[in-house]
Structures
1.
Amino acid sequence: MDFPTFHLDFFGNRMLIAAIAVLHVFINHALAVGAIPVIVGMEWWGHRKGDAAWDALAYKTLFVCFIITTTVGAMTGVGIWFSASLVNPYAIASLIRVFFWAWFTEWFVFVSEVCFILAYFLLWKRWSGQRKVTHIRLGAALCVFSWLTMAIIVAILGFMMDPGNWESQRTFWNGVLNPLYAPQLLFRTPLAMVSAGLFVWFLVIFFTQRGSEVRAGAIRFVSAWVLAWTPLLMFGAIWYRWRIPESMLGNLPVAMGTQRYETWYDGLLLAIAAAIVLVLAVAGLGLLRPGWMPRVGLVLPFCLVLVMLGEFERVREFIRKPYVINEYMYANGVRTDDLALFQRDGLLAHCAYASTRTITPENRISAGRDVFLLACTRCHTTTGVNGIVAKFENLYGRDKAWDRDAMVAFIENMHGARPFMPPFPGNRQELEAMTDYILQVRKTGESLEGAQVTGVEFPAGDGAVTKGGATSSAR
Ligand code: HEC
């Protein structure tokens, strides 16, 4: 364990990544990957019919997408990698080893995408008339590049859920072509197209006049677009679901609704089915009777897709617990191969940034705090979201504060009791010190806000670990 620990003790680290990632996924899928083909389609249609109203609608839609994707979209895209490397440098370091050239290619493709969207937007007015067809082709190139950025990243996301035969072969292409790559890409592509349709529906309210011909035409066009992509979306969803490793499916109820609401699982499935039917009904109405479409019909599907994308990302993140990279690394950065070693020698002994490596009666609370930071804080806080104190006050849903012995017994077997949590990655002494630390927080309520395991310099030649070059790196 050779990185310092970054920790947000109120909202939790998971929330930091989630907030940035969900916003980014929405912008990327709906506004970049999905909306550009819709815009190019509208531009082409306007050009074919010689109708300036279509061209104006396409341009205004692009204006919104251009402003949002090049600001919030780009910042959250980079933000995902910044926040993920802050929260779990171990996972990102491992992923960089496998996907080194993919990241480089991603940078190249992303920069090209930005250049294309700049050119497409800024040349819109200048390349009208004679050069319109060239401008439409520029839009088509932008479509390809914005899809490619997603196609590369999905390889990494799929790998984290199931590295497949990379575990035995360890080549770049084994990593990229992991079992979940194709199904996830085939799911996300139509998902992007459908969400873009719902987003453009929403914009149509602002950019066209009620009762105008272009509004009816645009609603009809986007409705046909949504309906056309839906079968592929369903197919992608089923294939993706079918390829998810069996061992992860047990996590689904908690993934969808947290432990407290896991019994709502069937209800949530029903709600999702109802949302899909509603979107299809709106699309059907839009296709057949665009003039009848009430405003709420255009806003509601847009709100639904926001919620569903968020829920989908939560489930994808949660379902692979206790791992961050399936069967290779636990969510707290401990590699499965190192677990036995850490349990034998102690976690602190193999940690470059800890305040101590040997637990004494004087330092046991601060040592316990370090162990807690390392072993639990990727998912828990002290007293904030998913707070550890509350977890031990409400174990198994029973409202009572558990005593020290019961806590120790639970932690010893935490992976057995709750398979979505990794096994405790330290020795018995560390486990007890950590329990004492949690009991102290229960008593004093002191939080860890802003805390980090910054550590002490270890004396030269002190055992197996040196700062910055611990046992588990370079593998
Ligand atoms: C992979 C993420 C993860 C890690 C790491 C993790 N936990 Fe958890 N833990 C969870 C989740 C998720 C829940 C359930 C939250 C919910 O839905 O209510 C939970 C629940 C618990 C509960 C309550 C269990 C119950 O049945 O009510 C306890 C106690 C707990 N964790 C202790 C720990 C301790 C101690 C550590 C560190 C040694 C730890 N956890 C590490 C994710 C994790």
2.
Amino acid sequence: MSNKGIRNLFIFGSIFFFVIFIGLTIDTMKKVDKRAPKITEEVDAGKKLWHKYDCIGCHTILGNGSYYAPDLTKITVNKPEGYLEKFLVNPRKVKPNAAMPVLGITPEEAKKIVAFLDWVSKVDTNGWPPKPVLARYRVPQIPGATVYEKYNCKACHMINGVGGTSGPDLTHVGSRKPDPEWHKKHIRDPQSVVSDSAMPPFPQISDEELNQLVDYLITLK
Ligand code: HEC
Ligand code: HEC
């Protein structure tokens, strides 16, 4: 190739890739705006409280923070109304062994913090943080385990290392709580047997499902 040819290749090549670069940048900028919902006043107030109580001294969020306590990026997903507010005001009251201290958060502050956490959980993070590898374990093919899946008990409970940590680990619940009648009352209306329980009631569960679910729970020894 002549010198002139090389120069033209350089100039037009540069222009070509520069145009692609600008196009991709514009495309990304358009998407970035849609990746997070609107910031309301409550969300903004919650973010300030997040700093005031130095939550990041123990937790991570969107990749930043400390590894002492669980990541909170998607913590509001699957949590029933009111649960996290109660937890923030007094963790031990809803979770007897909670390691998170009482920070002196008022119920009004808790609402704002949860609004902030809820906003964070709606940010499109392209699937981050990844689910633990264990989460791909297979559900045993017994009716009670299917009911357990259907009502999403695992949002709060862990069995064999899979599930949430808001409620107690159920891997050996059958040894602790062998009485089926206790479980039936507890699942329909937790506060009827555990005053102050933060577990939501499941009045919608049918009698047949309830029997299958309880049969399953008491086998977990
Ligand atoms: C929002 C979170 C949440 C969900 C969803 C939830 N639980 Fe719970 N669960 C808790 C909390 C908090 C406790 C501790 C207080 C209590 O004993 O009621 C608990 C306690 C329990 C206990 C007693 C464990 C023990 O060692 O004393 C059992 C059994 C149980 N849950 C089963 C279930 C089943 C079955 C489901 C699904 C139908 C379910 N939970 C859904 C939060 C939840
Ligand atoms: C001293 C460390 C510490 C600080 C500070 C702290 N946390 Fe926690 N937090 C924990 C630990 C540990 C857990 C894990 C659950 C447990 O054992 O209490 C937790 C759990 C949680 C959970 C999960 C509850 C559940 O049931 O899944 C939320 C939400 C939470 N913290 C929010 C906050 C917010 C918001 C702040 C700041 C206002 C905060 N934390 C400050 C230690 C801390």
